[in-house]
Write a structure and sequence with these properties.
The protein has 283 residues and is of the alpha/beta class. The chain has one domain: Alpha/Beta hydrolase fold, catalytic domain (Rossmann fold). The protein contains eight helices and eight strands; from the N terminus they run αβββαβααβαβαβαβα.
Length: 283
Amino acid sequence: MRDRVPTLTKAALSSAAFLFLAAACANLDAFGGSRAAVVAWGGERNFVSEDMDAGRFRLLALSRQTGSAAVLSIYIEGDGAPWPNPYRPPPDPTPTRPVALALAAGDPGPAVTYLGRPCQYLAAAELAGCSPDYWIKRRFAPEVIAAYDDILSRLKARAGAANLRLVGYSGGGVIAALLALRRPDIVEVVTIAAPLALADWTAHHGISPLAGSLDPQGEAGHLPQGIHWVGGRDKTVPPAIVAGFVARKGGRLATMPDFDHECCWTRDWPALLSRSRNKEITP
């Protein structure tokens, strides 16, 4: 129902900068935009799809397991479809460019799962019952994090893994950080172009806070080991935002000078992943 989505004033532009400000990435595979397209693309790469219900949400999961694994790697999608203009969000948040799935496909690990975000990949009838708040202001609400927490426990048990590694792109990195601050079984958290300090990020862009969302920087505790990747040319999530968060919450900052918010993470991810797991990243 398109009339469910409110027109926003400039003061309420608490979501647009994630995707409206991001430049297109020329090297990302041309897939996405619908559940069918994503499931088909994943199936060609041995990912099995399923819907996972938790609380009020239904998330699309695609999993690939080629053997036993002590650690299950879970990739969490970004915020989804781009905004048509800075004043109006998309009527459907299903990503036209599912970056996190492309990253997951480049991970050679024996157990890898991709998770979409609330309200993404839904049929029209289901989408009509999913509040736009969950892709605008409440995308990191407590009930969203609780749903992921539940799903992570089920995925971990089914994979026979002892621990989890979370990888989150853009807003998915915020969810990964919030989960890592809550769960002792997350041994590594990796974020890519993620606005981990939400208050600093909204202040930088001069936009309204994400009312109802949790801010990882304001949560108690420190993150487990991990790398927080940033693009030196990223105007959506400037490196300084992530650097400030890392100084407070832990982890290592890794800057790719010629990258922006989307380019060229998917193209270079296998090499970046190899470098990080071989401890070749210096602070």
